[in-house]
TrEMBL record:
Organism: Anolis carolinensis
Main location group: cytoplasm
Keywords: Cytoplasm, Transferase
PANTHER family, per the entry: SULFOTRANSFERASE SULT
GO molecular function terms attached to this record: aryl sulfotransferase activity
Full protein name: Sulfotransferase
Primary gene name: LOC100556456
């Protein structure tokens, strides 16, 4: 028994990244790639799509609460990461995201961080619904940096200055933020994509949650809607063990370094970017985002 316990406390080795079509992904995901690409979507699948640290957990809880019609007991049935299979997740010997998705009865709610060009083709062919949440690049960078500091499931981010450069160059897991948001923004013109902004959900959660309800075809009364707004607020979710990854061992996610649910604010980048970094970032951002109508609020 004690031996097993000791093994649990051995710090995990951080994964290597591989590459698929120029996009960095966990090596274990790359090893499963043909299986991921051949995944069979179903017409009634709903796919939650985000760039990492753009409010994924938040939108998952919102969607789940809508589907369960505000029933808190049902929303506590399992940790959030088990309720919605993460399709490109692979970490043998654990069941992969594909295994979990295939074992799940329809209608399924699935999750991905993949950019549009890497998504399994069947999602487009089956005309699935996609729910995309985008968060401004500066806050995304800061949140991703802190996540990589505490989670052994991703590479070590190095110093803030090093990470700043890596993020701008797109040399992080799931590739460049810029191409990711632009790709999904464009996809909404030809597919069933509800494109939401993290900053808008923060500003007016009730209005944005209503959009999600409409999109997934649920009609809920005002009292239920208010209940969902309350229970998906950052303050409440931060204390919800089914959402805050409290059950994940410290050897996998060390929340003493940085909590999984850290701040959930807009504009925290100002506490990290130097004046020089901000100027450089803005200049680079202007170039990379020149070919899109997509605009973000960097503060509220």
């Amino acid at each position: 028994m004690s031996k097993e316990k000791g093994q649990d406390l051995k710090p995990m080795e951080r994964p290597q990244l591989g590459e698929i079509d120029g996009i960095l992904l966990a090596k274990s995901t790359c090893d499963e790639w043909s299986r991921i690409q051949n995944f069979q979507a179903k017409p009634d699948d709903l796919l939650i799509c985000t760039y990492p640290k753009a409010g994924t957990t938040w939108i998952q809880e919102i969607v789940d609460m809508i589907q369960q019609e505000g029933d808190l007991v049902k929303c506590q049935r399992a940790p959030l990461n088990h309720r919605h299979p993460f399709i490109e997740w692979a970490r043998p010997p654990q069941p992969s995201g594909i295994d979990q998705a295939e074992a799940m009865p329809s209608p399924r709610i699935l999750k991905t961080h993949l950019p549009v060009q890497l998504l399994p083709r069947s999602f487009w062919e089956q005309n699935c619904k996609f729910l995309y949440v985008a968060r401004n690049a500066k806050d995304c960078m800061v949140s991703y940096f802190h996540f990589q500091r505490m989670s052994k499931l991703v590479p070590d981010p190095g110093t803030w200055d090093e990470y700043f450069e890596a993020f701008m160059a797109g040399k992080v897991g799931w590739g460049p933020w810029y191409d990711h948001v632009k790709g999904w923004w464009k996809a909404k013109d030809t597919h069933r994509v509800l494109f939401l902004f993290y900053e808008n959900i923060k500003k007016d959660p009730k209005r944005e949650i209503q959009k999600v309800m409409q999109f997934v075809g649920k009609q809920l009364n005002e009292a239920t809607l208010d209940k969902i707004v309350h229970h998906t607020s950052f303050e409440v979710m931060k204390d919800n063990p089914m959402a805050n990854r409290a059950g994940v061992p410290i050897t996998v996610m060390d929340q003493s370094i940085s909590p999984f649910m850290r701040k959930g604010t807009v504009g925290d980048w100002k506490n990290h970017f130097t004046v020089a970094q901000n100027e450089r970032f803005n200049e680079d951002y202007k170039k990379k985002m020149a070919d899109t109508t997509l605009t973000f609020s960097m503060e509220l």
